[in-house]
Amino acid sequence: MRRSANALTAFRALCGVLLLFRPTSLAFFAGVLSDWLDGPLARRAGATAGGARFDLEADSLLTLGAAVAAVRCGAPRVVLLAPIARYGVHRLRPRLTADETRWDRVTGVAQMALMGAVIARLPARWASIPVTAGRCAALAARIASRGRLDLTAQPAEPR
Length: 159
Known about the structure:
Number of strands: 0
Helix content: over 70%
CATH topology: Four Helix Bundle (Hemerythrin (Met), subunit A)
C-alpha cells in the first residue's frame, strides 16, 4: 500500500510538471484526485516522515503548476504569489497548529478551486484577487503567529 501511495504522489508531481507546460483540465483534476487518494492509502500503510515530505512537495508542485496554467488561461499573475510564497513560509514555520492547519486547508482549497475553474475556462477570473489575498493572508498569519494563531470563536466570559 505504501508503494501505491508513493506512486499516486509521484503521479501528482508529474501532473504539476505537465501543467507548467500544457494547461489541461485533465492534468489538473487527475492531480487533485491523486491527492485525495494517496493520503488514506499512506495512513493505512503507516505514514512515514519521508512520505509526508514527498506529499507536501508534490502538493506544492501541483499548486505551482496549476497557478502557471491558470495564468496561461487568463488569470491575473497575482495568483502566482501564494504558491511561490509557500516555499519561504514553510522554511520559517514548518509546523502548524490545529487552527493554522484548518485555515491553511480552507484557503488552499479555495485557491485550487479557483485555478481549476480558470483552467476549465469557467468564468472565475473575477475571484482571483480576493482568493489570492485570502491565501496570502493565511500564509502571513502563519509566520506572524509563531504558533499562537487562534481564529476560532471564543465563548464570552461570564460577567
